Amino acid sequence: MTPSLDTVFSAIADPTRRAILAMLLEDDMAVTDVAEPFEMSLAAVSKHLRVLTGAGLIQQERRGRVTWCKLQPDALRQASVWMQSFGQFEPMDIEVLERFLEREFNAAPDS
Fold first, then answer.
1. Which H or E element spans position 29?
2. Which residues are listed as membrane-spanning (predicted)?
3. How much is the pTM?
């Protein structure tokens, strides 16, 4: 099962998680190495990693005593395709996108 678009966008909404993804663009990293540049506990970084894993954006793998993180770039494909649909607004007008998102997320679901 692929993660929902909402799950992916929720995961990348946090700047710490975006920073982690950017770090993993370079190479696989041990969890302790991922945590090193952040001024937070290893437990807090681990929570961010669980969110990214749940969204399918990274994969975690035990190698001996070390847990490694690996970027799953294909997981962003659905979000990328969705964002590309806004290419019709050349150049991209952020205010138009914001108004669209407000309408989209504030629309009451039919009950």
1. strand 29-30
2. none
3. 0.74
